[in-house]
Amino acid sequence: MMKSVPIINHPDYVAQIGDDHRFPIKKFGELIKILKKKNIAKDHNIFQPTEVSKSTLLNVHSEEYINKINNLSLTQEEIRKLGFPLVSSVRRRSFVATGGTVLASKLAVKNKLACNTAGGSHHAFSNQGNGYCVFNDVAVAAKYLKNKYKFNKILILDLDVHQGDGTAKIFENDDTIYTVSIHSKKNYPSKKQSSNIDIELEDGMEDEEYLNVVNQLLKSIETQNFNFVFYIAGVDVHCNDRLGKLNVSEIGIRKREKLVINHFFKKNIPLCGVLGGGYNHDFEQLVNLHSILHETCNDVLIN
Ligand SMILES: [Zn+2]
Predict the structure, then answer these.
(1) How far is the CA of 128 from the centre of ligand 1 (A)?
(2) Phi/psi of residue 293, each to 5°?
(3) 190: CA distance to ligand 1 center in Å?
(4) Vertex 248, ends 186 and 120: CA angle to 5°?
(5) pLDDT, tens digit, 9 for 90 and up, residues 155-166
(6) What are phi and psi of 87, to 5 degrees?
């Protein structure tokens, strides 16, 4: 077993969407830098993904939609819903970041833990992109694992502040993939879907109450024998986030990652971590908050 957590990164995670875009796309480039600086990502544990194959994508997305992304031919209305300009670097990033989550999930099967430095595009539906999400990378990787390893119970634990609506919809009739979302009640998307478990939080929730909700949730699903866990570690629950409505501190996020990652590690259930959202007012703080996922996985693995 590898001593450090496998970290998946590609320079093309950073797409050219313009420096004044509301989405902080540069965080993906800065995150790997800070992980190297903290000595969490070293030469031997950084893995570069390739573009996800069309056949793997087809397990979740319609051919028509995949072709539209490939040919950069979404309608204006579809581009508006997506929130990104549909340029070739956005196409490239979508394929390579989805390939990254697939690779991370395979490495997690081998190493118990692995993390992408992107991913968590949970608002993407099978034939439509939404809210900065082109392909639902976690859904695609979950289907990939299910087919490859014959897993019959995969958990998708989504702690991004927004509901994982795309994921919930994709798996609404699939009882081998169990979807859980803890999210802000009054936040995007306005039309929620039904996950296996949805927990809605009131505005302004603070560390203690939030961590209590997460802890209770983990206890409530404890007896289920999951083969594998995808963890969407959105940091838009942070008090300084532009889009979140909660009041969770950096210490709270640190405690959350420890709680979740330790919980499954102790049970010997492999876990693949992906970023999820983060739109902090302070860019440096944002990158640092995202790095807590990788740092915590690394600490759990080496201790
Ligand atoms: Zn979010």
Answers:
(1) 17
(2) -60, -50
(3) 13
(4) 70
(5) 999 999 999 999
(6) -110, 170
| Position 280 in a domain | yes
Q: Phi and psi dihedrals of 264, rounded to 5?
A: -80, -30
Rounded to the nearest angstrom, the distance between the alpha carbon of 43 and the centre of ligand 1 is: 30
Q: How many domains does the chain have?
A: 1
Question: Does residue 2 sit within a domain?
Answer: no
Q: How much is the average pLDDT of 29-54? A: 97
Residue 234's pLDDT is: 98
The residues, any chain, with a CB within 8 Å of residue 117's CB and separated by 6 or more, are 7, 8, 9, 13, 28, 31, 32, 35, 100, 275, 290, 294
Average pLDDT over residues 99-112: 98
CATH number for the domain spanning 36: value is 3.40.800.20
Task: Reply yes or no on whether the pLDDT at 1 is more than 60.
Answer: no
pLDDT at 249 over 90: yes
Which residues 6+ apart lie within 8 Å of 173 measured at CB?
none
- Ligand 1 centre to CA of 303 (Å) is 31
Section 94-112 average pLDDT = 98
- Assess if residue 1 is contained within a domain: no
> Does the residue 98 lie in any domain?
yes
Task: Please give the distance, rounded to the nearest whole angstrom, from the Cα atom of residue 167 to the centre of ligand 1.
Answer: 13
Q: Distance between CA 57 and CA 198 in Å, rounded? A: 26
Report the pLDDT value the prediction gives residue 2, as an integer from 0 to 100. Answer: 53
Report d(CA 286, CA 191) in Å as an integer.
27
The answer to whether 156 and 224 have CB atoms below 8 angstroms apart is no
Q: If you measure from the C-alpha of residue 44 to the centroid of ligand 1, how many angstroms do you get, rounded to a whole number?
A: 31
9 Cα: distance to centroid of ligand 1 (angstroms)? 20
| List of residues 6+ apart from 243 with CB closer than 8 A | 161, 162, 187, 188, 236, 277, 279
Q: How confident is the model at residue 19, as a pLDDT?
A: 80
The domain in which residue 128 lies consists of 7-302
